[in-house]
Amino acid sequence: QAGRRVLMAGNWKMNLDHREAVHLVQKLTWILQDKKHDYERVEVAVLPAFTSIRSVQTLIDGDKLRLRHGAQDISQRDSGTYTGEVSGGMLAKLGCAYVLAGHSERRQYHDEDDQVVNAKVQAAFRHGLTPILCVGEGLDVRREGRQVEHTVGQVRAALEGLKAEQVAETVIAYEPIWAIGTGEVATPADAQEVCAAIRAAVAEAYDADIAAAVRVLYGGSVKSSNVTGIMAQDDVDGCLVGGASLDPEEFAGICRYH
Ligand code: PEP
After folding, report:
1. Residue 219 annotated as part of some ligand binding site
2. Cβ distance 218 to 174 under 8 Å?
3. Rounded distance between C-alpha atoms, residue 176 and residue 141, angstroms
4. Is 184 in the pocket of ligand 1 (CB under 6 A)?
5. What DSSP letter does each residue of 108-125 carry, written as one string?
6. Closest C-alpha to ligand 1, atom 7
């Protein structure tokens, strides 16, 4: 991780109503506090459904919790006649620090292409949010051995037009689609191969300092039982966790991987 602050982010997807969300945050922060979690070294964030963000924010602010929170999606537009959309400005007012952009489930079920993902990354920066840009190949691409080419292509397209300091702040999550929610975790070497290639691509497009600053996460069936090997890789700076983030003991175990 070479001095980069580790980030463990829990993507709750379309799970937990606002009461359940509050309950999970309480349990998670109690466990982490009990274990004297070092938040400076390992930042912890939760990404609830839109309907739970306000409740989570109130709890975090009220109890002065050190947990960060964010959203799973953002509109590429800032306001107007876009029924059902939620803008970056609205998320910023709810204290969101992070927002996912281009999660594979959005790309797959909502037809988000690289252009839309780029517009969402730009929208995040317009409102002071840090995007967690999700990239990664499907099984067909992996079988053809084109995972690096495919994933680096997605990164380049999504970062198009950003300023260097914005790229340095962006979090990039490498999530091979074949490993998401399948229990099929990539090997630590698989994760390292693509995460290192992403960092090298940033160095090529910008410079070595920007590449050294950007945080690259791995995501795909991460659990407390497999996180240690993944986090031992030089270019993996944290994890984006789906299913396992819904269990506070399990997610706390992931946050305390060392
Ligand atoms: C995700 O959807 O971002 C994810 C990594 O899911 P899971 O951990 O359940 O594979």
Report:
1. no
2. yes
3. 10
4. no
5. HHS---HHHHHHHHHHHH
6. 242
> Is there a contact between 176 and 135 (Cβ–Cβ < 8 Å)?
no
Q: Which domains does the chain have, with CATH numbers?
A: 6-255 (3.20.20.70)
**Spatial distance between the Cα atoms of 89 and 75, rounded to a whole number of angstroms:** 10
Report how far residue 191's alpha carbon sits from residue 184's, in angstroms, rounded to the nearest whole number. Answer: 13
Residue whose CA is closest, atom 2 of ligand 1?
A: 242
Q: Is the CB of 221 under 6 A from ligand 1?
A: yes
Q: Which SS3 state, helix, strand or coil, does residue 175 take?
A: coil
Cβ(242) – ligand 1 distance below 6 Å: yes
Q: Which residue has the tokens 């070092």?
A: 38
Structure tokens at 12: 């709750």
C-alpha triplet 24, 29, 31: angle, nearest 5°: 95
Complex ipTM > 0.90: yes
**Residue 219 alpha carbon, nearest atom of ligand 1:** 5
Ligand 1 atom 4: residue of nearest CA = 242
Q: What would the pLDDT profile of 76-109 be if each residue is shown by its tens digit?
A: 999 999 999 999 999 999 999 999 999 999 999 9
Q: Quick one: angle between helices 18-34 and 248-255, nearest 10?
A: 40
Let me know if 258 is exposed, middle or buried by CB neighbors in 10 A (0-12, 13-18, 19+).
Answer: exposed
**Cα torsion 38, 41, 43, 44: sign:** negative
Residue 102 pLDDT: 98
Active site amino acids = 103, 175
Amino acid residing at 114: D
